[in-house]
């Protein structure tokens, strides 16, 4: 903005605000900004933020709605209103008035109760029939260069800096939905898009500064919702990345915290020790547990105190608001063990109470299945802790897949899957070769294309719900560099003028094109492969560098053969008679070759086979 026009604008603004807008001047925010009639939970708590709002007395008049309690806190600029909705309450607008000591209306707010969409409560979460495509929105597609930098937000676009904002946006994902669906993906998990008004490194989205607002550099709330709707129309489920452990240091409430215990460790800075095992460790010291849970993730991410009931309700309602508003099919919950663990049980319960068929996957970044399984719903823990979380990210299998391919033996994978007895529901784990926080899978296997294919075939056919990071289909890599900014590189073709375009195929190498088709072939087949959607897993001790397993239900059966050896392997099929019917026939969906499965079978070196039995 030029100086002249900006001073005119300022003058206009000051004129506007000099004229008192009767009834509105006291209120800065009401959160949640609106709600829905007909939710199972009849309670709603509103956070009202406004200058000295606590001096006023709120009143409501709306049929079926009652104001049960008004809560004042240390800061005079907050009021919390406990509302109760009767079962038959109709959608509509409730006028909340705030009276001063003379019983005059000093402020008012029109609060909307919207009608729920049909089937909202019965929404189906992502499940074993799905394969998730993980997207880092800043690095995927820049459809709107006009929003790359936004006035009023601290960090400006800088594509030349690997840790900067590169300009990718929600519109870019929307434009790419056909590409994603055509590859065979049935769900997208999009890294966080809520406002991150931080000085630097704000592109990753994990430093929320407004829990109810999409960052304008990604787009608007409406665009986010439109993306979800459009994805659904194309058969692609939408999964939101959420964080309840912390916010960003630039969060609006940091200037005016409601209570002294709104955050943890607000005195002298305490960083979490990141020792996740302290939660389960029977010998652990209480102070280490406290530092783990209440310390800040990093200095720019204040730790939220979910033991404060107001904070707990705020966060839970926020999650439900986004499910209802953006029509979500799932949530990926960041840093699952870091918040108060009893709160996480209450949070999950509240979400699953509203949406019984929904799915939530938690991130417990740990290679130990004893620790990961601790958090799954149905687990009987020795300390009595009960979790309500349906799904977890399967870090133990991810780590061991990379290890297996690097040591040249399937044993690490075979033995890790044998630990499934620890999980109440191993089928509901999300399996993945990599994600946005670690080396890209192609780099992790030394850019060995044969290993890459073996690994992907395994992830897409073993038990669980597979997830693939964007760009894996074109062998995106970060050789020798663990840098997050490089791992999350721009998707080629996402920016005008890119020399390589993964969407059109222009500039891709033969191998990149082949990798895309390899993935696409398995994904399209997997859509109808019922044995992978609800079937069991039966696997055999790896022999001759070859891992053989079956996925089966009552009607369908798939035999997966993964030869990691540098020589062809000859398998004696009698060994698999427990799973393999006599005189079975089938077709390898990768090569298209038909097989008579009797006697022996030759498996070429370094080759995956996925045989769909007739
Ligand atoms: Ca943009």
Can you characterise this structure?
- The N and C termini lie far apart (about 70 Å).
- Strands 16-15-14-13-10-9-18-17 form an 8-stranded parallel sheet. The protein has a 6-stranded antiparallel sheet with strand order 19-20-21-26-23-24.
- The protein has 15 helices and 26 strands.
- With about 625 residues, the protein is an alpha/beta fold.
- Helix content is about 25%, strand content about 20%.
- Mean pLDDT is about 95; it is low at about 1-25.
- The radius of gyration is 26 Å and the shape is globular.
- About 45% of the residues are buried.
- Bound molecules: calcium ion (CA).
- The site of calcium ion (CA) has 7 residues, from loops.
Index terms:
single chain; 614 residues; alpha/beta; eight-stranded parallel sheet; 15 helices; 25% helix; disordered N terminus; binds calcium ion
């Amino acid at each position: 903005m030029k100086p002249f026009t900006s001073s005119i604008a300022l003058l206009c603004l000051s004129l506007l605000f000099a004229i008192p807008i009767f009834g509105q001047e006291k209120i800065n925010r009401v959160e949640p900004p609106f709600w829905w009639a007909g939710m199972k939970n009849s309670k709603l708590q509103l956070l009202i933020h406004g200058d000295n709002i606590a001096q006023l007395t709120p009143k409501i008049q709306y049929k079926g709605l009652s104001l049960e309690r008004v809560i004042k806190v240390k800061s005079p600029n907050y009021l919390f209103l406990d509302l109760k909705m009767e079962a038959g309450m109709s959608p509509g607008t409730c006028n909340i008035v705030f009276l001063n000591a003379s019983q005059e209306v000093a402020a008012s707010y029109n609060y909307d109760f919207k009608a729920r969409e049909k089937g909202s409560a019965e929404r189906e979460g992502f499940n074993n029939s799905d394969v998730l495509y993980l997207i880092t929105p800043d690095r995927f597609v820049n459809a709107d260069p006009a929003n790359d930098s936004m006035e009023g937000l601290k960090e400006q676009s800088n594509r030349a800096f690997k840790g900067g904002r590169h300009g990718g946006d929600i519109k870019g994902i929307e434009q790419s939905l056909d590409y994603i669906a055509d590859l065979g993906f049935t769900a997208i998990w999009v890294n966080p898009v809520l406002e991150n008004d931080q000085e630097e490194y704000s592109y990753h989205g994990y430093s929320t500064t407004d829990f109810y607002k999409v960052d304008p550099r990604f787009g608007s709330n409406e665009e986010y919702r439109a993306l979800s709707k459009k994805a659904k129309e194309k058969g692609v489920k939408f999964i939101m990345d959420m964080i309840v452990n912390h916010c960003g240091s630039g969060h609006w409430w940091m200037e005016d915290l409601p209570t002294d215990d709104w955050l943890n460790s607000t005195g002298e800075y305490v960083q979490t020790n990141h020792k996740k095992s302290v939660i389960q460790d029977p010998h652990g010291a209480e102070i280490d547990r406290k530092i783990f849970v209440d310390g800040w993730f990093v200095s720019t991410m204040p730790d939220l105190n979910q033991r404060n009931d107001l904070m707990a309700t705020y966060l839970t309602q926020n999650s439900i608001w986004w499910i209802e508003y953006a029509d979500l099919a799932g949530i990926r919950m960041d840093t699952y063990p870091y918040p108060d663990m009893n709160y996480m049980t209450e949070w999950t319960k509240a979400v699953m109470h509203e949406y019984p068929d929904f799915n939530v996957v938690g991130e417990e970044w740990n290679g130990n299945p004893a620790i990961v399984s601790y958090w799954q719903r149905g687990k009987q823990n020795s300390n009595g802790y009960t979790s309500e979380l349906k799904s977890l990210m399967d870090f133990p299998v991810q780590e061991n897949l990379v290890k297996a391919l690097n040591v040249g033996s399937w044993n690490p994978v075979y033995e890790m899957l044998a630990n499934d007895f620890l999980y109440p529901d191993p089928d509901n784990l999300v399996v993945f070769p990599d994600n946005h926080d670690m080396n890209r899978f192609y780099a992790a296997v030394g850019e060995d294309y044969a290993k890459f294919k073996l690994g992907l075939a395994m992830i897409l056919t073993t038990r669980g719900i597979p997830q693939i990071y964007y760009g894996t289909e074109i062998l995106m890599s970060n050789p020798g560099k663990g840098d997050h900014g490089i791992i999350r590189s721009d998707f080629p073709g996402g920016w005008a003028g890119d020399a390589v375009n993964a969407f059109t195929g222009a500039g891709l190498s033969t191998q990149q094109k082949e990798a895309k088709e390899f993935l696409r072939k398995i994904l399209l087949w997997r859509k109808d492969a019922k044995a992978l959607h609800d079937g069991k897993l039966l696997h055999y001790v790896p022999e001759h560098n070859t891992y053989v397993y079956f996925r089966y239900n009552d009607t369908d059966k798939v035999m997966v053969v993964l030869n990691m050896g540098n020589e062809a392997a000859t398998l004696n099929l009698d060994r698999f008679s427990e799973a393999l019917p006599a005189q079975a026939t089938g077709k390898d969906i990768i090569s298209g070759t038909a097989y008579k499965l009797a006697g022996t079978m030759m498996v070429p070196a370094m080759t995956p086979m996925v045989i769909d039995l007739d």
